[in-house]
Amino acid sequence: MQPVGSPLRDPTAASTVALEDLARREFRSLVALGAALTGSMVLGEELAQEALLAAVRHWGTVQGYERPGAWLRRVVINRARSARRRHRRELDRLAEVARPAATTEQPELDAELWAAVRALPRRQRELVALFYALDHPIEQVAAELGIGVGSAKTHLHRGLERLRAAAATWEERP
User: Which residues lie closer than 8 Å to 156 by C-beta, 6 or more apart?
Assistant: First the structure.
């Protein structure tokens, strides 16, 4: 006989255990995805937490999905898009008030690379982040973004071409 609070006797407890397992399994990759898309580990963590909170709110639906982790990644991608739009609006407002100060520091290559990734068009940026930062297969990336594999390969190729062109300019510097 199972104890009264056991997940086997209490469907709510079983659901909670499943949600906790999902959160444990996916949190790091959600943070990495968010950080890759935004350039900020702090914002990546916030996006991951927001995605998990959304999963809690919609757990009745999410738990029935075949791949709830893919749903979480989609939430992070959508929230990163919103954060990027919000950030652009803030920068536009700031530019109206004052000119940004020029910096004399040379950023490290990794920071420069991810800045170049964030400068890519939205779809290319998402594909590069999912494919390279999270090391997902192209078929999975395409499915998570709701596009065909051929389209995903095309966008990824175009994004890599842009990154190669950007990297060529880094090598030409003194």
Answer: 124, 127, 128, 131, 138, 141
Measured CA to CA, the distance from residue 158 to residue 164 in angstroms comes to 10
For the chain, which residues make up each domain, given as ranges?
A: 9-102, 105-174
Element (H, E) at 51: helix 41-57
Classify residue 33 by its DSSP letter: H
d(CA 118, CA 83): 12
Once rounded to an integer, what is the mean pLDDT over residues 16-23?
91
The CATH number that domain 105-174 falls under is 1.10.10.10
Task: Provide the CB-side half-sphere exposure for 138 (13 A, CA).
Answer: 11
- Residue 106 or residue 34, greater confidence: 34
Given a cut of 60, is residue 50 above it in pLDDT?
yes
